[in-house]
Design a protein that fits this description.
single chain, about 15% strand, about 220 residues, Integrase
Length: about 220
Amino acid sequence: MSHLLAYAKWLEAESIQWWHFPERESERCLVRFRGALVAARNNGELAPSTASQRMAAVIRFYKWTQSRRLISPEWPMWEQRFVGIKLTNPFGLEHTMRVASTDLAIPNRKVAGAIQLEDGLLPVTVSAMKEILALADRSATEELSLMLRIGFFTGLRIGSITDLKVKTLLNATLVPKVGWKRLAVGPGARPTVEIKGSKRESLFRIIKGRCREPSSSISSA
């Protein structure tokens, strides 16, 4: 129901009726909603899995309304298609199952250049993150503000952040055309940085105007 609620709120914000399916395809409510979901996913406001599930839930709702004859638009709501899904049985034999889909489905795939946090977690929304950072800049110490940025933009846990070494930061390498720097972390990094599981690397964005020379109190081992 949360996905349908999000759709209802979007319809209200955009002043669109849920049965709006005009001749021009780009103006149809579902097409526009799909575009909004893709944009939110690409901007980091929605996880790829959430965008995919939300679109699927809305399509299921419209299929239900069609089956109950609650809606019968003059123009098609979507284009039906079939996709093949490969399945492997316990004996290692593969077979392909045909599944009905639509041209509005949003694939659950990673966004190029997006931040991949540990375990795929998104602790807060993008707007909430900006508010937290702004509050930290005004009221907290510079060290805490920088630690929050590292946590938000890399997904590193507090244990990993506090285990970062001066050499870890000095050895960071620039990712071309992205504007990020790559930190080597984990047991295979030199120097080592404690992390959960086997993950070895994470991305750290340059925080302009907020970085300074590391203090002598930070471990350099």
